[in-house]
Amino acid sequence: MSNGPGAPTPDAVRLCAQASGFARRGQPWFYRDDVAGGELAPSRLVRVRDELGRDLGLGFTSAGRLALRLAGPWPGDGAPDRETFFHARLQAAVARRSGQLGPDDGARLVHGEADGLPGLVVDRYGPVLVLQSTSAVVEGALDAIVPFLVGRLGAESVVARNDVPARRHEGLPAEVRLLHGRRIEAAAIVEHGVGHTVRPFTGHKTGFYLDQRPARGLVRELAAGRTVLDLFSYQGGFSLAALAGGARSATAVDQSAEALAAAAAGAQRNGLTGLTTVEADVFDFLRQQRESGRQADLVVLDPPAFAKSRREVEGASRGYRDLNRQALRVLAPGGFLLTCTCSHHVEPARFEELVRQAAAGLPFRIVLRQRLGAGPDHPVLLTHPGSEYLKVLLLQRPD
Length: 399
Fold this sequence. Notes:
alpha/beta, Archaeosine Trna-guanine Transglycosylase, Chain: A, domain 4, Transcription Regulator spoIIAA, Rossmann fold, 3 domains, six-stranded mixed sheet, 10 helices, globular
């Protein structure tokens, strides 16, 4: 690494001039070629400076290709010790979600870069905390992070759901393990008056799709008297919300028999009737619905991410366009389509254009009623477009 103006100390790194400009505009991630001075290994918390030695806040270094992640401003000149940094950041993140800390609440307590903690996600399901770490710095600080969260929140169990591919980039193993307390296989949360069972060790993501809380609330508001199709339903979160809102019926469609069994069990626990489960490929199911002339008053389309990398965006675009067109074709007059993508490589404008293309040429009008995203416990870092990964559109076919 070169020396020069503002030569870094052992606890600092310096960005090149171009990268410094990007950092000042809020870009949070930098690669090896962006670093002009200072050592990246071992992975650690450092002070970041621009090409002239001016302060750019703190960052996490890495020996991987993604060499530096900015972690926000910090007073003083050097880098704080691990405990001081993580305790301050965690306390601030939890305080921002103070309204979602009831005994039956589910909430995201830490959301990576948006909370100044890149590479860390913490979800709360009642007495259970589920952590996901994709940074070697975070991984090395778990002995400071976990005790603080347990003491602050009184958690009975802390689980590491580190079975995500992103960990490979930091040389970290894929694993699921208990970090603290007793093993709780199933936790109960209540959302919009509906009880859900969360399985921290085996459920999708960290156990549940907490980010869709606003969309499930909207479905409950719209559902009264309607027939509902819940496509890619997983354990039926949208179906249960619809039935709780007075839907005449809800059909949950998924390829996982286990997920559909969980949906049926959830309806029974909540005393909700009118749920039908269908184990099927959604594309095939929609084709059969159209061929038989069946329509629904409210369709929820919440597929998995079709684009997991930029190379997959074109193929994913075709999939989203075709899927939305099929869903619109089974929508009854006056009905609503709630359509979603969680692919962060598919930007909001592109997703909206794909849905617009799906509606083009249909023999009826489609109106965009509302745009939604993840809830306020999943804040979007405005200068990091990838953090706005969830896009939700509410469409209507007018009478």
